[in-house]
Write a structure and sequence with these properties.
Blueprint: H1 21-24, E1 42-45, E2 48-54, E3 78-80, H2 81-89, H3 92-102, H4 104-109, H5 112-137, E4 140-142
Parallel strand pairs: 3-4
Antiparallel strand pairs: 1-2
Amino acid sequence: MEVNDRLDRYCCGFRPDPTESCVENLLHVKCRNDKELLLVHILVRKADPSRLVFIDNSGRPHHPTDNLNFRLVEGIDEFPEKAVSVLQSGCLESLLLHSLYVDREFWESHGGARGLRSLINTVEQRGKIILQHIRDKKLRLNRDL
């Protein structure tokens, strides 16, 4: 959510840190101008052209929670029911640990479960925030997504 760089090079949060590249390169002033938006880091698969694939997701796990930017989800009026049920279930940590364990090189280079705990806690916290966003906006859940 807070990483608009995937879609828009100019946006790096509501109150970006002065060291953010978008601020250092004087690009942040273009953030709210829709005519300046540049789509980047997106692929469309020929086999499934109706779905966008985001690549190069350089998440910022230490970005302050009170400065998250929901610009990426503006205009989205429904979310996958299965994904939301995972966020609500309380089993996200277990699923993430299992998934990350499959990539042994990544797992070991980050110190295993102990080393990944902080990152996983951040992902869980962000999941709770997106759930609250879905509730606040009364967004629909879609079984087919």
